[in-house]
């Protein structure tokens, strides 16, 4: 029995056009699509289907780069480390009598 490969929920692909890619492949450049929704290669509207060299680049996730502030090296909440209370604020008229 072989080990089962876990399916990734957001596995996606990007169409990488070959050296002389058709206009449709060039239009899809940089767009990630869920694997289940990906078009078949060669693309239906490809005018160079006999010489098509397009391939899929696979990704585990559709998202690109770090999304959270701490992953980008930034403070998650810039106000978290700032004291915002005033030191001597009078709440009643009699506080400073």
Low-pLDDT residue spans: none
Number of individual domains: 1
**Helical proportion, percent range:** under 10%
Class by SSE composition: mainly beta
**Cα distance, first to last residue?**
85 Å
Count of helix runs? 1
Summarize the structure.
The protein is mostly beta strands and 97 residues long. It contains one helix and three strands; from the N terminus they run E-H-E-E.
Which labels suit this protein?
97 residues; 1 helix; mainly beta
Write the layout of secondary structure elements.
Elements: E1 12-16, H1 23-27, E2 32-34, E3 55-59
Describe this protein's structure:
The chain contains one helix and three strands, in the order βαββ. The radius of gyration is 27 Å and the shape is elongated. The protein has a three-stranded antiparallel sheet, with no helix packed on it. 5% of the residues lie in helices and 13% in strands. The protein has 97 residues and is mainly beta. It has one domain (9-81). The protein starts with 11 loop residues before the first strand and ends in a 38-residue tail after the last strand.
